[in-house]
Design a protein that fits this description.
Keywords: Disulfide bond, Glycoprotein, Golgi apparatus, Membrane, Signal-anchor, Transferase, Transmembrane, Transmembrane helix. The chain is α/β, with parallel strands linked by helices. The chain has 9 helices and 13 strands. Helix 1 (8-20) runs antiparallel to helix 3 and helix 6 runs parallel beside helix 7 (356-366).
């Protein structure tokens, strides 16, 4: 921007040149002198040219000053945008997610799941008889110079007083939502709480309120972020329609997740056709469809949230553990019976490698006008093959190597979420 700012000496010279050609004030006191001067000017081409030079110099000065002001304003705007972008861990000096290890911490777990009224059966591993407890005692330790703060639930409730926080996505978003409710309840066990509906049924949302702090925390179920519409021909997944997003307006904090339902086919696939614009197809490449839908979501965020104070977060893709070769075991192994994390520190050290759709998600977030904080949980979660409910889920999901026990790994997600919210990273 400095190249477009005129040097101070140039502006001074323009002012001096203009001053040399300004007539003395006393010449206007005599009407006869004025008439003589005008008559003389009209018949004197050199003075006429000098008069034009005066006007040109004055206009030039105004133009150069205006350019300077505009350049400075643009620099401030760019600087502010860079400061907002710095909220992303990819731009921060410390990346809590990229490298680290799971260490035993005897102060863990952060709460007793038996005392939490918010845990759904499918995540309540202790209730359904999981015998080992070591999976509860691991804390994520980022590599130096990074560290994570101790979670302070009361401080977070006070920070959120009068606000609405919303988790939007599939059951992995629900995993984090219920973990957070338990952590807040443990921090303020005597605080009055209400659930709406009272049954906790998600249709399509469920709401918990911490009444004494005036804090509202919502989970909104959506498998694809974009709309699935029932039409005469069947259920249509509309890649460029996001009407349901009107339900997300008004939230002070939004946490999104996506991807897990895109690969589904057969009886568990909740749509019959895919539509984009006027084109309707029976199926298409799922990663391509995911990308189109994610861009629709990004356009909605930029169109509706740029001018608001809403803070937006996006979960990294949560991994599953159904293929033993992903962590160096036999191909037939799953998470069943696993009781220890995978050894490894650097991102990329996991034998199964990166989840390809993670790169797509990062690219879309980086292209947006609205700063979105990327909660990059993927690598640290890949190391936790021991943290799934497996068969201890009340028989709801069978042998579950997708979701996570609560208490358990999602508590670490929320410690890192808390660090991002408070800037303690």
């Amino acid at each position: 921007m400095a190249e477009n700012t005129p040097p101070t000496s140039t502006i001074k010279e323009a002012y001096q040149q203009a001053a040399l050609h300004i007539p003395s004030a006393h010449t206007s006191r005599s009407s006869s002198l004025t008439r003589t001067s005008l008559s003389f000017l009209s018949s004197s081409p050199p003075l006429k040219m000098r008069c034009r030079a005066v006007v040109f110099a004055a206009v030039l000065v105004v133009f150069l000053v205006a350019c300077s002001v505009a350049a400075a304003a643009a620099a401030v705007t760019i600087n502010r945008k860079r400061q907002n972008r710095a909220a992303s861990p990819s731009a921060a000096a410390c990346d809590m997610f990229a490298a680290g290890s799971w260490v035993v911490d005897e102060s863990y777990p952060l709460y007793d799941s038996a005392t939490c009224p918010f845990i759904r059966a499918e995540f309540d591993c202790r209730r359904f008889g999981r015998p080992d407890k070591q999976y509860l005692r691991y804390r994520w330790q980022p590599s130096p110079p990074c560290s994570t703060p101790r979670f302070d639930g009361v401080a977070l409730l006070r920070m959120w007083s009068g606000k609405k926080v919303m988790f939007v996505g599939d059951s992995l978003a629900l995993n984090q939502y219920e973990s957070l409710l338990c952590m807040l309840h443990a921090a303020a066990p005597n605080a009055r709480t209400t659930m709406s509906p009272a049954s906790g049924k998600v249709d399509p949302s469920t709401t918990a309120r911490f009444e004494d702090f005036n804090v509202t925390i919502v989970y909104y179920l959506t498998h694809y972020l974009v709309d699935v519409v029932n039409e005469k021909a069947g259920r249509v997944l509309k890649l460029d329609s996001i009407d349901q997003a009107r339900n997300w307006l008004g939230a002070d904090v939004l946490v999104f997740d996506n991807w897990h339902w895109w690969p589904r086919s057969g009886p568990t696939q909740p749509w019959d056709y895919i539509q984009e614009g006027n084109t309707v197809v029976k199926d298409m490449d799922r990663t391509q469809a995911f990308t189109k839908a994610l861009n629709t979501w990004a356009r909605w965020v930029d169109a509706n949230l740029v001018q608001t104070n809403t803070r937006v977060f996006f979960q990294g893709i949560s991994p599953s553990h159904y293929r033993g070769q992903d962590w160096g075991a036999s191909a037939r192994a799953t998470c069943m019976g696993e009781t220890q994390p995978v050894n490894g520190t650097a991102a990329g050290a996991y034998p199964g490698g990166l989840i390809p759709q993670q790169a797509i998600l990062k690219n879309v977030l980086a292209s947006m006008a609205k700063p979105v904080y990327f909660l990059d949980f993927t690598h640290l979660s890949q190391l936790r093959k021991d943290a799934h409910p497996t068969k201890y889920n009340g028989g709801i999901f069978g042998d579950d190597c997708t979701h996570w026990c609560v208490a358990g790994l999602p508590d670490t997600w929320n410690v890192l979420f808390y660090a991002a919210l408070t800037g303690q990273q």
